[in-house]
Specification:
Distance between the termini: 56 Å
Mean pLDDT: 91
CATH topology of the largest domain: D-Maltodextrin-Binding Protein, domain 2
Low-confidence stretches: none
Strand content: 15-25%
Number of strands: 11
Helix content: 40-55%
């Protein structure tokens, strides 16, 4: 049964005539009659009958009209419940991030929201391949994801994508390495080093492939480590070099971060969400706080 048809049946019971219903809902009497006929086709017993020139409700029609009141009331309560949920700033917001973003953003996010009496957040780290970030939006409200500059864009036909920051990727060397004395490096300078790479499918791998292509030879991959913090500790120990993010790598006197002069490298850090998630006031507040943190570095 169509809710609009039920509404007209209720109006007929309250107003007493098709003409009065038509005036109330701003349609023609013929349109009212057509919709009541459509409702009648879904019922097993007559809902209306003629009394002289007037169309009135039968006992079954009055019973259905009373049920229509209950249906309308329930739908109104449901709509109000949804509105309350969307507008409630205290509803918890779940946030997932890859490791280095979690290290950079989780603590200041929690601190700022606590200071401003913002919504509670539930944080989780998610170390996934680049192609798997969109799928995380099924389990988390906001997903901090990264992709390389020339990687395929996120599927905006089904996701809301909010850019946070573009972060350069630098070659990380031990501070005592001879190349650390230079302000900028070239592919030729570093292509012969032993390297730390990420696992297949993860961001940064594409940039390492580009370095190998420019050098004209494959890189020597000695270690495969996804967590940049762990990779930084291995670099600091003098075991290899790596590509590390310029903004989210914690300062470490044992490390030197140097840009590549002949191969600019970087990644986009974005927030992914299902579009309906951003209808929630709490989710929007958390997103705005993340953007503020990103702007202030």
């Amino acid at each position: 049964m169509d809710l609009r048809h039920l509404h007209l049946l209720r109006e007929l019971g309250d107003r007493g005539s098709v003409a009065a219903v038509a005036r109330a809902v701003h349609v023609t009497p013929s349109a009212v009659s057509q919709q009541l006929n459509a409702l009648q086709r879904s019922a097993r017993v007559p809902l209306t009958e003629r009394r002289g020139r007037r169309l009135v409700l039968t006992d079954a029609g009055r019973a259905l009209a009373a049920a229509a009141v209950e249906v309308s009331s329930a739908l109104d309560r449901a709509a109000r419940a949804v509105d309350g949920y969307l507008d409630d700033p205290a509803v918890p917001v779940t946030v997932a991030a890859f490791h280095s973003a979690g290290l950079a953003y989780f603590a200041p996010l929690i601190r700022r929201l606590t200071e401003t009496a913002g919504p509670p957040v539930r944080c989780a780290d998610a170390d996934v391949a680049q192609a798997d970030f969109p799928g995380l939006t099924a389990d988390y409200d906001l997903v901090l994801a990264h992709r390389l500059e020339h990687s395929p864009p996120w599927p905006t036909d089904r996701l809301a994508v909010v850019p946070l920051v573009y972060e350069p990727l630098y070659v990380a060397l031990p501070a005592a390495h001879p190349l650390a004395a230079r302000d900028r490096l070239t592919v030729a300078d570093v292509s012969g080093e032993e390297w730390i790479s990420v696992h297949d499918g993860f961001p940064v791998q594409g940039t390492l492939a580009a370095i190998a292509a420019v050098a004209g030879r494959p890189l020597t991959i000695t270690h495969r480590i996804n967590d940049f913090t762990v990779a930084a500790s291995v670099v600091a120990a003098g075991a290899a070099v790596a590509l590390l993010p310029g903004y989210t790598t914690p300062p470490d006197p044992r490390l030197a971060l140097r840009p590549l002069a002949d191969l600019p490298a970087g990644r986009h850090i974005d927030v992914l969400a299902r579009p309906e998630t951003l209808h929630r006031a709490a989710a929007r507040q958390v997103l705005d706080t993340l953007r503020t943190i990103a702007r202030r570095g």
